[in-house]
Input
Amino acid sequence: MNQEGLNFSWLLQMAWRDSRKNRSRLLLFISSIVLGIAALVAIYSLGDNLRQNIDNQAATLIGADLALSGNKAVEGKVKTMVDSLGTERSEERSFASMVLFTKSGGNRLAQVKALQGNYPYYGELETIPVQAGKDFRNKKEALVDQTLMLQYEAKVGDSIKVGEVTFAIAGILQKAPGQTGLTSTVAPSVYIPMQYLDETGLMQKGSRVAYRYYIKYAPKTDVEALTKVLEPRFEDADLDYKTVQSQKEDTGRSFQDLTRFLALVGFVALLLGCIGVASAIHIYIREKLSSIAILRCLGVKAYQAVLIYLIQIVGIGILGSILGAILGTAIQQFLPIVIKDFLPFELTTDISWLSIGQGLAIGTLISILFSLPPLLSIRKVSPLNVLRATSNDSKPERDPVTWLLYGLIILFIFGFSFLQMRTWVEALVFTAGILASFIVLYLTALLLMWLTRRFFPTSWSYLWRQGLANLFRPNNQTAILIVSIGLGTSLICTLFFTQTILLTRVNLSTSGNQPNIVLFDIQPGQKEEVLALAKSQNVPVNQSVSIVNMRLEEVNGKTAADFKQDTTDKQSGRIFGREYRVTFQDSLTKSEKLVEGKWEGVYKNNGSLIPISMEQGFAKRSGLALGDTMTFNVQGTMMQTYVSSMREVNWGEVQTNFLVVFPTGVLEEAPQFHVMLTHVPNPAASAKFQQAIVQQFPNISIIDLALVLKVLDDIFNKIGFVIRFMAGFSILTGLIVLIASVMISKYQRLQESVLLRTLGASRKQIFTITALEYFFLGALAAFTGILLAFAGSWALAKFSFEAEFKPDFLPVAALFFFVSILTVIIGLINSRGILSQPPLEVLRQDT
Amino acid sequence: MDTILSLQDVGKIYQSGNRSLTVLDNVNFSIDTGSTVSIVGPSGSGKTTLLGLCAGLDRASSGIVELHGTKLNGLSEDQLAAVRNQYIGFIFQNFQLMPTLTALENVMVPLELRGEKNVKPRALDLLDKVGLAERSHHYPTQLSGGEQQRVSLARAFSNRPKILFADEPTGNLDAETSEKVVKLLFELNREAGTTLVVVTHDLDLAAKTQRIIRVKGGKIISDAPSSVQNQ
Output
């Protein structure tokens, strides 16, 4: 005998032969992972294409070789330096301001960009008509973002008033470098030529203006190296800089985060599918026990028997992965449509072979990993089973190899999430979160099964009892179905709850007598006039505060440069980079609460340090404590302060809130502007009031919260769509796992149904039992999922959004019935074969 | 004559919780190469357990089982598998054909397991001998009970076993089919010179073997040539 020489080709042949009659079933098991692989391949391909597109289009994202930005105009030596850079330069000043469409009388806050020079040097301002993007610079003409044009039904040739100047609309702005669909919704742009900026009267002291300088270098110049040398000088001048390379990295990083997040959502779908695979293989192997026993009886060794079935799984796993990769590549063609509003560039989609390879590898690996625990039980199949099928029924002892495999699976999940997140802690949290969700769902399923058994309704009619009893029959699929359908339901439900919580919160803020209009950039001289105008129109002013812009120079005697050198300091150096908008007040407002220190509302001007109050969260993030000294630069005047108190601020209230609050008696004479909050009862009054403000005070900006709400809703819908799209994979996978499980259990219940029919049960009775079983299953799964979503959303509302959780029960009930009924329909469709087959045929059928 | 199978003081005890159940107790016998033996006894007497121990499908709790000079007691599962493949053929009451393989493939498996090449002609030849050459590509579900048992006969002889164990080979067949199958079994056995051990209730079948071992309550109550027992 040459059994040692029993070669691999024979095992392959046996695997092929044995699978012949079960291939469609095997494919069904593996179809649970097809969608997961499809999701991953689609997202990896998207990531790959994003990377390539960013590489190809990086220069057009920034529009120049180097972009400098700051919040004051460059002067003196700095100006000389900037003017000496590159071969060509452009300047842009941008600020928020109201614009007025003279024809319709409509007005809205827009991002006004005054431009000088030939920027952009790469890419272009895409306009209709095409020439407008170049020609407007020399005339009293403006380019207006297409969302504004649509909103106010304006046409090219109409007029738009920016400050004191009326410009003819030269063209509709469709795209500018670095601009996304989303930014144009939030802050639509209006480009005007720089030479008319002063005439608008909008450049006043205290106005918040961003100054940008775009520089073009001669081809082949090493801009990176040049900027490295200039970096200290840029820093001294408070100028931020961006090069094509740094822009490429920044953009790449933000989209890497997006694709990683989406990959994790896809991975959840894949894991769900894997559990489906493991459960299906478990049942498959149980059905194969007699075949395995025969093989063992004929002399096949334990590992050879395992190999025969492993080969089947690997083969079908590869096939499933190929199907998934094809589907994923197809889906990838549509992903740009889903995320185009988030992209600052045109996305082209190519087939990514790398992503397909990754998908195939993960699919194959995961099908092996998750099918091995049930496959390994083959080793324990005794050849004695051919004589007595019961000899294996004693309780199986715990196999250490199985535990090892579980460990490997957890390690795999951790490894995969680490590859996406790149930090140990996040990967650990994700892995623990995934395991916890699965365990909670699984335990809930077990508990529900136990409860059903414990409080079994013995008085119900036979059909109901039989349907319910099927939930805990031997080899039932209750737990796996509750986990998969429950997880899908839970994802959808949580998403719905979260969206409701956020929107309700914003809605609440804008209802009742809460302020709904914010006026800012009010110059000190205009304050009284604006108040008078409001009064004349019966518009109440809820709040009026002064705002002073300042920068932080020192903390406890240390400058930004000192912090940069001392990396061990617990304080964050980042607190220096920002501009502080500060108010002064003698008492706390109703949204503020003193939590630490002593509130000092009035400064006695005795030369001592000025007592200031910090917002608690910001102080904590920045490593600031009571008593710390801080030096602020207010337009050249240094203010020596110390932290005398910490406040807790309710940011949910619609009113102006501040990180830093000064006492009265210090900043009254500093350059400042005012902000007022008002409540306008209806859209007509709102339009009238806004129009009057814009016409009388062109420099004052207005935020209409109704408009903000609309924009927020729009953003939620867009983000929600992306998440729903990905959650859809989990739901669909759940359904496929359901179909697969129903198909498997079909073979189990065949005998039982045949017996019932032999004993005289009608088709209708068997149909009812089956329908009831699936209804109980779907209902339990949906109930568990919704319960989990309730718990999760409540926690989110309480701890993350600090909002009240008031779920809307009607859609939840609808979701519950939808999932339950869908389960029944799928269950019945798959079981119809049982009903239509005559008992004799079924008795002769092999399993 | 050589001994192919010998059992010395063999016992089998099943443990169930704290209770132990003695199924076989102090069994001793040996079987000569080429002979035909039947093991008979009422249900629950331990005869199937005895067959399992003799064929290396199960392990004895005590005593020694020696098959073709190999002591089975100390062998691992894989070593036992090799012994079965090399020396033993099986026939079962419920045929035990692999449902996913055709008749031909079922017959080929033991040969392929031995690593033999060109096994198809031999398998076809055996199927021809049992009268099923025409049905070689049919699956077990497409065959009648008698046909399935004939395939199982062909499979049992395919690896030229030294000893053939048959567990109630006619238990699932009608009288007429049983007769045909038994005839075939003895013909093939004679042709191949294989030792045959049959476990059966059927005394007519037992009478066709040279020797009958009677088992009751896990013990051998008689062991004599069938001619003597029939008297």
Observations:
- Chain A touches chain B through 40 residues (CB under 8 Å).
